[in-house]
Structure formats: C-alpha cells, structure tokens
Amino acid sequence: MPFIPFLGAAVRRSLRGTATPALLLLAALSPVLGGCGNSRGPGALDSVPGGADSAIQVLSNRADLISGGDALVEVRLPADADPNRVVVTLNGKDVSSQFARRENGRYMAQLTGLALGENRLSARIGNAAPSVVTVINHPNGGPVFAGPQVQPYTCSNADKAINAQCDQPAEYSLLYKSTDPSKSGLQPYDPANPPTDVATATPQGQPAMPFIVRQERGFQDRDQYLILTLFDPAKPWTPWAPQAQWNRKLLITHGGSCGVTFRDGNPPLDDYSGTIPANPAVEQSYVTALGLGFAVASTALDNLGHNCSLVTGAESLVMVKERVVEQYGELRYTLGTGCSGGSITQHHVANAYPGVYQGLIVTCSYPDVFTTAVQFADAHLLRNFFEDPSKWGVPYTPQQFADIEGYLLHVNADVADEAFFKAVTNPANPDCNGVAAGTGPDKLYDASSNPGGTRCNVTDYMINVFGPREPAVWSANEKLLGRGFGGFPVDNVGVQYGLGALQAGKIVADQFIDVNQKIGGADVDLQPQAARLAGDQPALANAYRTGAVNVGTHLDKVPIIDGRGPDPGAAHDSVHFMMMRARLDAVHGGHANQALWEGPVPLIGDALFAQNALLAMDRWVTAIESDTAAKPLAKKVLDNRPADIGDACYSGTGTKLSTGRCPEGVVPYYATPRLVAGDALSAVTNKCQLKPLNRADDYGPLGLTDAQWAALQTIFPTGVCDFSKPPVGYQPTVAWLTYQKANGQVVYGGTPLAPAPGYSGSGWASPSFGVFSPSP
Q: Model-level pTM greater than 0.85?
C-alpha cells in the first residue's frame, strides 16, 4: 500500500486551512476502506486529489465556495471504464444514481444533497482505489465569504420565503422581443396564446429562431437574481446538453449610484440603470446580447445604488455564476456592463476577485467608491463653507467656488454632495430603505434618542471591510455602547484647498487662507466640526488591501472599454476615467488593456456605445480565449487586442470619427478639490503623508505676507500634504479575501482564501483565462 501516505498528503494539501484532523485521517484511510491492497488495474480512476488532474472535477465554482447544496460535478473516466461499475459517495452515502454518461460523453451530475460545511466526495470503479475531494458548501442565503450580514433585513417575498434568508424556489417566465418598435425591451410571452409580433434572433453561428427568452428569477444571498437565455420552449435544456443557440457566454448587467438598504431589491438590466433613464429608441445591450446567444445575469446586490457593499456584490456574482453553470452549462467567458456605480462594481470586482469577469464595458465611470468619497466629502465641506457667506472672512465669486473645487461650475459640488455623499454617509438617513425610525437596535440610529440603533451609512454597512474604530477615538456614544462604529477611510488633514487656484492667480492669498482656516471636517455622525476630518485606522489600510480603494493591482488581466461623454454638472466628469488610466500606468507601466471611446452625448459619449462596445469586447475576449500559449494572462490581453479597438472619438450616433481622444471642446475634463490641492492624477491618496510648511513653496505670483504665513502655520501645525509620497496605509490589493472564519465569525479587513482547490471551477471560463490562478 505505498500510495497511502501519498494520498494522505495530497488530501492534506487540498484541504489546507479547512479540514479538521479527523477529516484528514478519514481521507488518508479512504484507500484502505475502499479496497486495501487492490492494484490500480485497467479502468481505475486517476486519483490525484487536490490537483487539476483529479478524477473528480467540481465545475460550477471553487470547490470551497459552493452554495445552495448543489454543484455541477464531473467524474473523469478512463476510456475503457464501465460507467455501471462507478460508485460515487457523498459523505459515505451512495449518490451514483445522480451520475450518468451524458449526451456530451462525460460522466456528470447536478449533484444535490451537500451538507453545510465540509463534504467528502469519493468516486471509484469496482474495488480500485477511490479519488477523494472535499467540497465546502455554504447557505444559499449566504454568506459565502462576505462575512456576517447586515441586520435588520426585510424579505419582500415573506409569503413565499421558506426561511429568514428569503430563500424560495426559482420562478420561470417567458418573454419575447417584439417587431413593434413602440414595444421596447422584452414583453410577456404566453405559449398558450402566442403573440404574432415575435421578432427573429440570429444567434452566433446558429440558424435564425424566434426571439423568445426564458427568465429565471430567484433568491441568493438574501436578495434577488435574474438569469435570461434565448429559449426554445419545445426543447429541453440541461447543463450537459444546453440548447444550441447558447454560445456559452455570459453578460452581467449592473446598476448605478451608491445606496445602503436593508431589504431585497430588483436586479438591474438596462445599460444605465440608476443613472440615466432607458431610451426606448435604443435597444439595451442585454437584449442585443440575448439575440446573439449570450446568457444574461443580474443580481440586486450588483446594483450599487441598492447595495454599496462591494464585497457583498462580489459574493452575489460568484453565487449567480455558480447557478448559471449548474443549471445551464459551462461558460466560455463573462462580460460586464454598467454605468457610474455599475462601472465601480466592475472595476472593484475585477480587481479584488479576478476571474469573475473576462471583459469590462464601463460608462460614465468611476474607479471606486472610496477615492470618489474623498472628492465628494471635499465637495460637502466646501459647500458648507461657500454656501454660508456668514462664514467668509473675505468675499468669493461663484466662479472662485468652482476654481477651488476644480469644477466648471459649483453645481457639480451640489450634485456630488446631495445625490451621493449625504445619501450614503449619514448614519441617521431617514431614507434608509428597510429601517424604520423608533428605538432599539433594529430601528434607525439617532445620536440622542437611539444611539444603539442601525446606522444607515456605508462605512457601518461595510464594517466587515473597514473594521470598527479604535477605542482611542471613540465618541461618547461609542463609549456608551462599548464598541466602535465603522471606520471612515477618508481624511483631509494637511490638505491645502485651492492651492492650484492660488498658484494660477484665480484666487488671492487671503481667500486661500480663509477657506483652509474654516473648512473644518465632520465627526463620526457626519456633523460639522472645526477640526479637520482624521481618517480612521485600521480602515485606511484596509481600504487599500481590500480593493475598496482600487489601485488597479489586478486590472491588467482584463480588457476594458470605457465610454465617456461631457459632464453637464452631474458629478461624472471624465477626469474619473483619467484617474483609472493613471493608476494602470503607475502600477503596470501602461494602459493598453483600456480603450476610451468618447463622444458628444452627455455622460455616455455615444447613444450606441453599449451595443457597439459589447460587439467589440466580444471580439477582443474571443481572441484572448483562442490564445492557448503558456504566457501570463495580462500579456494575452495585450497581444490579442484587435487593431481597431483603442481610444476613439464617436459621432454620438454610432459612427467612429477618428482614433484617439475627441478634441477637448467635445469632451472637456476638469479636476477635483483634491487635484487642485496638489494630488496626483491617479488620486489614490485618502490620507496623505505630511511635510513641514515651506515658505519657499509656490504660493502664487505674489507669495505670502508675514501675516499670511503666520496664519498658515496656525492652520497646519503638523504640516501639509506631501503628495510625492505614498498615501498612509497604501498597499496592493490582495485578491480573493474572505471576511469570515469557518465558524462564521467576522474577520475585519479580510484574510486571503486558501488557494482554490485544483479540482474546482473549470466551468467558469475557458482554460486560457486561468480563472482562479491569475497570472503573475
């Protein structure tokens, strides 16, 4: 029995960080229990537990992140094997009846019956040694890796839910695309009374067919998801024999804005959901994708306006992709599309959980939530000053407001503050969806009457990521409760607001002194205070390592097409695109994986951007997929970019006018308060390192008088920002973090998951993309 120690070691490797000693012992003894002394004769399984060559392959997800009690599993049989002699057991129970040689010639099952936690899956032929793997199953209602879930929580499906996690059986309906141009989107389809205006779809490489779609709606992670596919109601669909029109590609749609809610919501489908109303004259890209044969998926949790917790959004996407593979079949690749907050989710998930997407289509984009939060916090503080002339020591003009803020007009600060910053940072937000006013921990926070209530702000909502504030900075209410609120990873200590405007002669020194003397900050309840806002630890460091501040560590491994138009004062200025490009340049020495398409249509650039970008991205990712060379994925992304996909200027109606960016007059870009203060274009500094004041620095054409210099020393006693140095807490993003221990306890700031078991996830994408093992 010389292979027994080898098998035990292999199993130990596959279970690293997850298995109990008892389970390891059982796995090591499994060859003995399954037929000690039998040689690996003809027809024996290739038994390499923990490796990509294992006979058992868990196809629908990482084998340690499975959810819902089921998984798509294949047992790879030798060519001479008799399937009737295969015995598959799950936790010692024979589940062979779930497996069969399928239409595709493979021995597969939609395996059900997984217990919560660790599951031992074994397969053997006759009395030969078994192949053994471990599958870790999580609740369908979550969490999987996002950590303890926010409470209280309301399920809208209380009449159908089978538990407090909102779980209910999936529901299916039929839809169709109409030939009537007045009927935009998809319409209900009744097979008993078929409509006469069904359009024709032409899926890639397949004959034309009626444009009928099946929609699956269900609940995962306590919230709703949708999966749509072009569908022939007269034919079956199984994961090993999907209908031929499906090209095995997946498009994920996202929603904009940033919101904190404590109840389930609706998954977004339209290209600009949450930002710009759908144009009925323009087909949404999810409809285009369905007609080409794509599957389309969306989750309410990937709608940033409904759920601004980026880790929970990532978790929901991992779960819905698993569902797609289990129910519909293995994927070639996944593309994302979305505007504003929909771009943030894509950027964040692609960086923090590389492999979820293979291509990004972003519009009116931002790099992330929490460097944008710096900009919007500055807008909030500057508004508090500029819009209350009683605070002024010297007069200002509205144009000087904008000069200090970096905007064309001050209205951009109004939008940034009212529509975004206040909506997600006020812990007593009366619009907090799912939390009512009153007293008790399940009611809305009130600093005076209900200090232990639910805080409806994004940093408490994401406390698993940022961690609680340290006792040294606790407010009176935190001391009363004996716990810290969620840390705030934003800071303005040492920021010289308006410095660039002073250097350019747009404001005078007295104005520069006045605004910096009085701008102040905010306390943990977002109430104004005279002192500057000091960012919390460990929140600042955690923001970088988790990707909440997206420095682009892993974004070189995915192609990006960014659509951009002029900003009419809606806080979506094109400088956000330039920030992402600058981050790629800083971290990877280039940005050739990112193409910018500009045009004159406000925010989005071109009315047909989403549809045309989908077609272009499909070509780009197909080319990457065909590259099977042994080289890093980041190099494949660059090597296989089609020659006609790059920066371009569009007409607004779908016509490409030129390569390269549009003229500045078509799509101008402005700055932000922090860029005016001297930050680099990459804008990743949430808290700056400080340097001593130096009177020899550039303080405008006239410099500073003795009195002004003395005032500046009083304002900045500990120094001013040194933007030439790395931000406080700066570090690369650590990919694939989990925020929970095996027992469910929170891990603040996350900890890296063990390497993905080698026998898992091969159904997520073609091998060229190396889904769970990003190239270095």
A: yes
